[in-house]
Amino acid sequence: MDKPTVIQAPSLPKTHPFSRLSPEQLAYLEEHKTSRLYAEGEWVVHYGDNWPHIFYVESGEITALKESVEGRTLIVANILPGELFWGLAFFNEQMPMWVGLQANQETKISLWRRKDLLPILYENGEFTWGLTCKLVARMERASEMVEELAFHPIAGRLANLLLEHFGGHPEKFVERDLTLDEMAALIGTTREVVCRQLYRFASHELIQINRTEFKIVDADGLLKFAQKFKG
Which residues contact 64 (CB under 8 A, 6 or more apart)? Predict the structure, then answer.
């Protein structure tokens, strides 16, 4: 009988929770997992659903999205290959999803139900500790995001986004691979506000922008502009 293919990859860091599992436990996970493939734009789960699962991204990328009552969207996290994510109902069965999860490219995940993974959590303290560390890291990132949204006005958030996303190509035109809607979702505002602010940056000769390309003209000036608008 062929041995099951375990999910642990050689590239996983030692701090990854899966690295704490024995071969027998990895085989158990393989036996109880559900593999799913999502097309670009397909929803894994919607906001408000009761979803007692945890998953591991095999390939592709999943975006966690939060929507306001006004219809604005905020990108909370991008979940990359090798990373774990979970529904709140995995830990508290009465808790609904606080975000929606959507594949932003063709994505494959390995999925486990709460009841199937609990035995390993109970018997392997190192695995449970590793998962707890992941929870703390997510909480820390959420705290940073709340602080940024509360105390760093939109101009500063947009300037930082441009520097992070396009700063690796100073004074060169690069393809605009972020739409206005995507920029707005990343900094928690609307596409109209992003559009106005981009033209404001252009008027200060900090950037050049056209329909398909983008260039940072003055990275230092953009950074100073961002710091000026910090709360």
Answer: 75, 76, 77, 78, 79, 85, 99, 100, 101
